[in-house]
Amino acid sequence: MTDPFVHLTPGDLPWRDSYKLLIGAVVPRPIALVSTVSADGVRNLAAFSFFNGVCPKPLVVAFAPMWRGSDGGKKDTLRNVEETGQFVVNVVSEQIVEQVNRTNPEYPPEVDEFLVSGLTPLDSECIRPPRVAESPVQMECSLLQVVTLGAEIGAGSLVLGRVERMHVRDDVYRDGKIDPDALLAVGRMAGDVYARTRDRFSLRRPTVADQPWPPHNAQGGPG
After folding, report:
1. Using CA atoms, how far apart are residues 178 and 169, in angstroms rounded to an integer?
2. 137: in domain
3. Contact yes or no for 100/141 (Cβ under 8 A)
4. CA 122 to CA 145: how far, in whole Å?
5. What is the pLDDT of residues 101-114, one digit of tens each?
6. Amino acid 211: pLDDT
7. Would you state the pLDDT for residue 217?
8. Cystine design at 187: which of 39, 193, 195, 212 (Cβ 3.0–4.6 Å)?
9. CATH label of the domain that carries residue 40
10. What is the mean pLDDT of residues 78-84?
11. pLDDT (tens digit, 9 = 90+) per residue, 165-223?
């Protein structure tokens, strides 16, 4: 039989080739628009698609900034988080994705991406970095841990933050849940491609009792 797969060892590939495989296969990825403030008080705003929820109690989220592609240094967001121990994760919706896209270039540290993007800073309640007023969900976070995953171009870090306060826009909050039709979140695919979250389907989660048990092998005996 012809092998239908291409077999790849990421460690043998240039990091950009591994990166292209990763962002093409892990899709769609939710986007964290992370707002921070430097120790000197300079605001920063940057989007990260290596982002997800981790734990409900305590409520923990994580995002993974890579080292800068230009010089292999730390991104401003990571440096700010390490200096202050605080950040805000702002959910990206269809309404603001074009403004969020303006924050993607590697600006010098003194540049305030709130001004570049035209998004509005909103005072947080528990921490110093501002929220993004236009974001439908904002999470004020305190730093739990930074896991360093290498120290060269192509490597990065995993930032874990405890959500101290969560802000959900009124029309998005429904009976203790998030209404996806009001949230209109977007995700990243590969390259310049994004994905909407409007095309959805339901699939009931089965119980053990729903499944044939014990499993059987092809000959009909116990698996």
Report:
1. 10
2. yes
3. no
4. 25
5. 999 999 999 999 99
6. 81
7. 59
8. 195
9. 2.30.110.10
10. 98
11. 999 999 999 999 999 999 999 999 999 999 999 999 999 999 988 888 776 655 555 54
Whether 215 is in a domain gets the answer: no
Evaluate whether residue 219 is within a structural domain: no
Give residue 175's domain range: 10-210
Q: What is the mean pLDDT of residues 39-52?
A: 97
pTM: 0.92
pLDDT of residue 181: 97
Domains held by the chain: number: 1
Say how far apart CA 93 and CA 134 lie, in whole Å.
Answer: 9
- Closest Cα partner for 139 from 91, 85, 172? 91
